[in-house]
Write a structure and sequence with these properties.
- The structure is a single chain.
- This protein has 334 residues and is an alpha+beta fold.
- 40% of the residues lie in helices and 22% in strands.
- It contains 13 helices and 14 strands.
- It has a 9-stranded mixed β-sheet with strand order 1-5-6-14-13-12-7-11-10, sandwiched between helices. Strands 2-4-3 form a 3-stranded antiparallel β-sheet.
- The radius of gyration is 22 Å and the shape is globular.
Length: 334
């Protein structure tokens, strides 16, 4: 409150189509949904960042607004995790000021230190550096899009990298089999759905596959570069030099001067740069961070920027935003 954040309570129920039509795969799978008497589909709110965005679009509409909240979000789980997630967090919507990125991270970090009396570690990353890496690799467009799209699904992403390393997608016999399927599919109604996709979409993707070069791609080299990139983890002050070294060794151009993450100056002395940080939420677009208890490596808070989410949820124009939340359930374990 002292920092100008307004404490808000959000609606528990969200119309399902807002999430289903406009969000990523993780949220679609995790929705706890139901129908009302008229047959309209609703869901319990899966995330309080989304609730803040919807409130901004409906009630605030323009300018800078600072949200704070302590409430619950609800997601279907596929293991032993609870359906209920307690979130204590804050969001700044409508500002491009880099200092506000600092304010979110420092506010959460300093608050945690005051409450727990524990030393913390901050891990930082910028998702766009990974996208820059993908664009600098010698890959067909469809593969570049695939790696970006599935960066948020570490297990499936690992499978993609394995396929890439074996060149299974570009081997001649596999290509010929795909071509036979393509010729058969051309005779099928274009609106027919196969494995969740229209026949027309599958045909378009295969046409791209035909046009793009295949035999001259070194899948093993590309897979090695991606895997090595995702292992970079170093003190924040050395991050730019580590990435420059990685560029030189692999003959790449990551365009590092385009990223302002390296200008951040946090209050915490234990700050690290990790290229594998922030792969748990699909809507992040740039800066991502995690705050961990130093002695146990326990995640106490996380967040990041999400400059496309407002438009995805229905805003007429693109609105920059950043937020973060304390993992209250982990906090209780201390």
């Amino acid at each position: 409150k002292k920092k100008g954040f307004k404490v808000k309570e959000f609606e528990n129920i969200i119309e399902s189509k807002i999430i289903i039509e406009r969000s990523g795969e993780v949220f679609k799978k995790s929705l706890l949904s139901f129908e009302d008497e008229s047959g309209k589909n609703f869901s319990l709110r899966p995330d309080l960042t989304i609730s803040a965005c919807l409130d901004y679009i409906k009630n605030v509409k323009k300018g800078v607004y600072k949200y704070a909240y302590f409430d619950q979000a609800y997601r279907r789980t596929f293991g032993k995790e609870s359906l209920v997630r307690n979130q204590l967090g804050c969001e700044i919507i409508g500002s491009t000021n880099l200092q506000l990125n600092l304010e979110i991270i420092n506010l959460l970090d300093q608050s945690l230190k005051k409450i727990t009396k524990n030393k913390t570690i901050v891990r930082l990353n910028d998702i766009n550096i990974f996208y820059s890496l993908v664009e600098s690799l010698k890959l067909p467009t469809r593969w570049r899009l695939r790696l970006k799209r599935h960066f948020w699904r570490p297990e499936y992403f690992s499978e993609l990298i394995t396929r890439l390393s074996t060149n299974s997608d570009i081997q001649k016999n596999v290509f010929e089999m795909d071509k036979k399927s393509y010729l058969k599919m051309r005779k099928v109604n274009k609106n027919t759905m196969i494995a969740g996709r229209k026949v027309s979409e599958i045909l378009n993707r295969f046409q791209k596959k035909i046009k793009e070069p295949r035999s001259n791609i070194d899948g093993k080299r590309v897979a090695r570069i991606v895997n090595n990139f995702l292992k970079i983890n170093c003190p924040f002050g050395k991050a730019k030099n580590e990435l420059r070294k990685f560029e030189t060794e692999n003959n790449l151009n990551l365009k590092l001067d385009n990223f302002n993450i390296f200008d951040l100056n946090l209050k915490n002395n234990d700050v690290y740069f990790s290229t594998n940080t922030g792969r748990n939420v699909e809507y992040y677009t740039g800066l991502v961070f995690e705050i961990l208890k130093k002695s146990k490596n326990l995640n106490l808070a996380s967040g990041g920027s999400y400059d496309n989410l407002m438009q995805t949820l229905g805003s007429i124009k693109k609105i920059p935003a950043i937020g973060g939340a304390i993992n209250y359930d982990n906090l209780l374990k201390l």
